[in-house]
Each structure stands twice: as C-alpha cells, then as structure tokens.
Amino acid sequence: MTALRPLFWRIFLPLAILNCIAINSQQSQKKLSKYRLSQLSFKELTKLANEVYDKEDYTYLNDILNVHYDKAKQEKDTLELANSLTYRIWYESSETGLNYLDSVLDITRNQKGSIFPARAYYLKGLILYEIDKPGMAMDNFIKGYYSSLLSKNHSQVVDCLNGIAVLKSEYGQEREGILLHREALDYLEKNSEGIDDYEWIKLLTVDNLTLGYLELRELDSARTYGKKGMQLSLLQNDTLVYRKMIIALAQANYYKGNYLKAKDTLLNYIDLYNGIKRADILYYLGEIENKLNNPQNRINYFEEIHQIVSKDSAIVDNSKDVYQTLLKDAMERGEKEKETEYLWWLVHNDSVLESMKRKVEEISLMKFDLPIQKLKTDFFESQISKKERYLNLFYCISFLLLLIGGILHYRYRTIQRRLKHLMHNKIEPFRADYKNIKKKINNIDKSVINILLNKINEWEHKEGYLNPDISMNSLAKEFGTNSAYLSKVINVYKEQSFSNYIKDLRISYSINFIKENPDFIKNKSIIQIAEHFGFKSLDVFARSLKDKTGVTPGVFLKWVSQRNL
C-alpha cells in the first residue's frame, strides 16, 4: 500500500476515527463465544466491535463481524449487512476494502432514504485516493454527491463536496476548490438541524478552507479560517485538527516572512508525524533554512523527504522543487550516482502528477462541472427510470448543461484572448481628444483652462493619483484653484467624472506595473495590492480592473504568476 497523501490528513483519518472509534472501553473484555455473540443485538455487536477495534484484536473483531453479517443476512436486514461490510474496510487492505464496498453497493443500490449507497461511494473515493488513483476517487466522490442529494443525506453531501474540492485544489483547480469548500460550508449551515455531526463536519470544512487558502497564498483568509479552526477544535477537543491548524498558521508565517517563528513551531510538531505529513513539514523547514542562508540544512531536509518518497513510492507536494534542488546540489558536488537518482525521481514524479492532474480535470469537467454523461449512468437510471417526468427533466437539464457548457467554453476562449492581448500591449488610461471637444466652459477664461490642463498633465506625470487620500478639494487646493473650476475642466476635457478619472489612472498604472514587476504580487492579498495603488476598497479595485480588461483580478493575477514561473 502506498503512503497516504494529503487528502488522508484532511478528510480520511478524522472520518475514520469518527465512524469507527465511537466508544472506548477502559475495562478488559472477556471474549464471547459465537453463540453468545449471536444473542446480542446489532447495537450491542457494534459497541463490542468498537471496543475490540480499539484494542487492535482483529481476530476477535473478525469473529464479531462475521456474526454480525450472518445475523443480518438471516434477518434480511440490508442496512446492517452493509454496516458489517463497511466496518471491515478499516483494517483490511485497500483492494479488499474496495471489494467490500462494491458488495455494499450491490445490495443497497436501489435502497431509498438510506445512508447507502452514498456512503459506500464516498469511502471508495477515500481509499482510491489513498492508493494514488485520484481520477477514480473523483468519480466516486461525484457519485456519492449525487446519491446523497437524492437521499437527502446532508452530512454526506458536505463530505463529498469537500472530497471533490480537495482533489480540485491539489490538481491545479485551486480557486474552484475554494468555491466548493465555501459551498459545502454554506450547505452545512443551511441544513444544520438535519446533521447529527454538524459541529464535527463544520470543523473539517473549516480545516479544508484553511489549507485551500494557504495553497492559493491568500494568507489573510488562511489565517482567519485557521484561527477559527483552532477555536472549533478546542470546543470539539480535537487535538489532531488543532495541531494541523497550528502547522498551517506556521506555514502562513513563512510566506509572510516570519521565518524564525515558523521554524520554531514546525520543529515543535514535526516529530509527531511521519510519511507524507512529515515530508510536508520538512519542505517548509528546508525553505526556511534557505531564507536564513543555511543551504546545507535545506539539502539535509530535502534528502529526508527523498527517503520518504523513495521508500513508499509516494507523491508529495512540492516534489519538483525538492528534486530540482537536490539535483543541482549533486551536480555541483560531482556526485554522478545521486545525480542520476534525483533526475529519475524528478521526471517520474512530474509525469505522474501531470497524468493525475489531467485525469482529475477530465472527470471533474465531464461528471461534475458539466454532469451530462453522468446523469445517463446506471446509477441515476436505477433511481428514476420508472418515472417519466424525471426522465423528461433529465433531458431538459442535459440540454441546459450543454448550453451552459458552450457558453462557458466561449467565455474561457474570450478571456484567454483578452489576457494575451493584455500581456502584449501597454494599457493606456482614457485620453480625450481635445481637438474634437467643441463644448466650451462658461465663466472660465481659456488661459485658466490651459493652466489647469498643464497642471493636471504634470500631476499625472508625477503619478499623484496613487495617493489614496486624493480628493477634488485637495487637488483643487494643490492647483491653486477651486473645486468647481477643476470639476468642470475634468468633466469636459477628460470626459469623465472626477472619481472615474482617478480610478482609470490608478487601474491603468497598476496593470502595467504588475505586468512589468510580477514578483511584486508574491505573498500579497488582493486587498494589499489594491491599497498599494491607492484603492481603499477591494470592490472598487475589482470592478475597475474588470471594466478595463474584461477579466477579474483573480484571473489576471494568476495569469501573471503563471507566466513568471
């Protein structure tokens, strides 16, 4: 079995604990005979299984589950039969676990109002992700999502949305992942009364949002949700998530330049982890040492990551950076054997990640973002094929989704063209053609107008519009005139209101500056960028940039960042 990937730490382990370790027994448990076990109720068998599982007595646990299974089969209790098979996945191999879940799907596929088959699809997604099959994992999360919607299983809807979102985030669709996590949180709040484990699932969703914003380097949002996650984990007495939030905040400190503070926190917690999670912490410790001018320490940390990767054939985040650094060091030292080894792992991991990314994107697009073919699968047909009005509704939805897909594709191509034009052409603020201005300004002498226009042009040249506190009155005072004169001159000769005139100058300057200085936007939130160019409101900055370029700030900044890689 391959090493567990980040999704395990974000979803799998907490849910495993929640679903399987519900009751801990502090007393020794005398083993019962199969006959005595058969006299217990399903509830008693489940309680006993939890106690035995906690003690890792898998032989006795297997006896209990066999009795549970036989009892459910004899009484023709499909739900208990599914529960018995599902329980087994937590201590079996991945392949066996998947076979058990396929059996659960076979016996519950047509069961209405049950937690199955949605839960089985979701658990299959978790296991498939664990064994590095994210495409198949995405497919099962999507099936679980639709199934849970039909059965109105609100908690499972949120779980599946979070699973889909995590996969999107990890494989190049970070912004879409954040939106899905937000959708999951909104859905959770709207249906809180129908969710037994509301507080727990809310904690996991906030955890996902923290890590998602961290991946996008939106540090203010990451810190906000990270602190909220710490508060919720304390209320839930959840040490696991609490530690994750502390580590996430330490990573945010690294991106903000608080290297020593981040280093101290990560060193305090690294020995609590192994495998993929340890590799993630080692990466940040290595980058911190590099920032602190300790390159050899960075190499040492990265070599430990290599040991984890090579031992478990794991795919870790930032593996490209790790192996490029190790390869360069080996080349400088003339270590040919290591050079060959690091080069192989660099190429291998890069190709595997790219293949996974393409698969996830393909399945996500076809079966979630535009669920046309998905609605035609046997799963949905078994649910609605007997009801003609549902089938007609399906065709209507399919047509609408095809139409929406075409519109989205057209919009995507349009945005790409706009971005290419934007990158290859300097953005100019609006310039009125004085020669075509026939309107005269009453009560203002022509010489006064010329003086004001010269002062305005000189003020523009000195980039005075970047002052966030500029106003009509302050600028008029600076020019030695009154605001009424200045307002009329700008309205006529700039053909804009004063506020639009200022916004146009600022946004034009900011776009050109960011294109020429792409490193400027690193580790900065959008509001920080907006304030740098004189905007006091993120909304005004966003609308101004969208009006000027036809794209949102998020799209523009991501494009600039990708071109600078």
Textual characterization of the structure:
- There is one protein chain.
- With 565 residues, this protein is mostly helical.
- It is 74% helix and 0% strand.
- It has helices spanning 6-20, 34-38, 42-54, 58-74, 78-88, 94-108, 118-130, 134-151, 154-170, 174-190, 198-215, 219-236, 239-255, 259-269, 275-291, 295-312, 319-333, 336-369, 378-384, 388-424, 446-461, 472-479, 483-493, 498-516, 526-532, 538-549, 553-563.
- The longest helix has 37 residues, at 388-424.
- The radius of gyration is 30 Å and the shape is elongated.
- The chain starts with 5 loop residues before the first helix and ends with a helix.
- Residues 1-29 and 372-377 have low confidence and may be disordered.
Number of DSSP strand runs: 0
In CATH terms, what is the fold-level topology of the domain at 434-563? Answer: Arc Repressor Mutant, subunit A
Low-confidence stretches: 1-29, 372-377
Largest sheet: none
Tell me the β content.
under 5%
Quickly give the structural class: mainly alpha
Total count of helical runs of at least 4 residues? 27
Mean pLDDT: 80
CATH architecture classification of the domain at 434-563: Orthogonal Bundle
